[in-house]
Amino acid sequence: MSSAQQFRAGQARGQGAEKANQVIDSAKDTAQLAKDRACDATRSTHESAQQGAEKTTGFLQQTGEQVMNMAQGAVDTMKNTLGVGDNNTTTTTTTQCKK
């Protein structure tokens, strides 16, 4: 192999190595970008889920209170219907504390 051929072969090898390094660096950059986006998406999803949980908790608490009030209303209605409710009491007892 002549000197010129050896030179061109070395030059081609160097250019190939440089191109390979560029491809590797580009792949690393792309992987880092994908990782960053995945982290951002995870963080956003977590925050959204947390906000949703807080809204759900408030909704469930409000619904529970409404159900309890409705149940109490039904109990009061039944007591009044049967004549044992507070609304049908004709006598009032007052208790005073002695000093």
TrEMBL record:
Region: Disordered, residue numbers: 1-59, 79-99
InterPro entries: LEA1/2/D7/KIN2
Segment forming the signal sequence: none
Compositionally biased residues, Polar residues: 47-59
Sequence ranges of Low complexity compositional bias: 1-17, 89-99
Record's compositionally biased regions (Basic and acidic residues): 34-46
Protein name per Swiss-Prot or TrEMBL: Late embryogenesis abundant protein 1-like
Source species of the chain: Acorus gramineus
